[in-house]
Specification:
With 185 residues, the chain is of the alpha+beta class. Helix content is 52%, strand content 11%. It has a five-stranded antiparallel sheet with strand order 2-3-1-4-5. A hairpin with a 2-residue loop joins strand 4 and strand 5. The chain is elongated and about 85 Å long.
């Protein structure tokens, strides 16, 4: 049984995490083997988050007076709360993928910023690419014109170096001789 001082420490830690988190997801880890739970926790940590399993009453006390009070107060059953401090979509994706693999983990609800998310919205967020994937796509989009220009310059340089003439643009076909008019009698 937890002592009052231990409960207060847990509540203060949860309040701090609630304030710092960009997104919060309600899920569960009960029934998952310890090796699988450690794997899920590690993947969430790599995405800039953490997952906590504790008593529902402690979740409710920590959420009192915060934006997530409606989600965390009055919880029943086995619950875990995942906090995303950096990559919200990445943490949601880890939980969604773990749910596919382990079948015991499910995304139940969430908060993104100050907005409460339904289960469907949380799953939609989990299907988005992670922050790193989005940044990679953005960088590739920015670099495409520059790299295409560099390839063209390299091709021109190679043609000049080998002494070849640049390939001319399409030649116009020779004009046809005008058709002879028929004389009408």
């Amino acid at each position: 049984m937890l002592q009052r001082a231990q409960k207060d420490t847990i509540i203060e830690g949860l309040k701090s995490d609630i304030d710092k988190a960009r997104a919060i997801f309600l899920t569960n880890l009960i029934g998952v083997s310890s090796n699988d739970a450690v794997k899920v926790r590690k993947e969430i940590r790599e995405k800039g988050g953490k997952i906590i399993v504790t008593r529902n009453t402690l979740f409710g006390l920590a959420a009192k007076g915060t934006k997530v009070e409606s989600m965390l107060s009055g919880l029943k059953g086995t619950n875990a709360v995942a906090f995303a401090f950096e990559d919200s979509a990445g943490v949601a994706k880890v939980l969604k993928d773990a749910g596919k693999e382990l079948e015991l983990i499910e995304l139940r609800a969430g908060f993104l910023g100050d907005r409460e998310l339904t289960k469907a919205e949380v799953l939609e967020l989990a299907s988005l690419p992670s922050r790193d994937e989005m940044l990679g796509t953005l960088l590739a989009t920015f670099m495409a014109p520059v790299s295409a220009f560099a390839r063209v310059l390299h091709a021109i340089n190679e043609q000049k170096g080998s002494g070849e003439e640049a390939a001319p643009a399409e030649e116009k076909p020779a004009e046809e001789a005008p058709a002879k008019e028929k004389k009408e009698d």
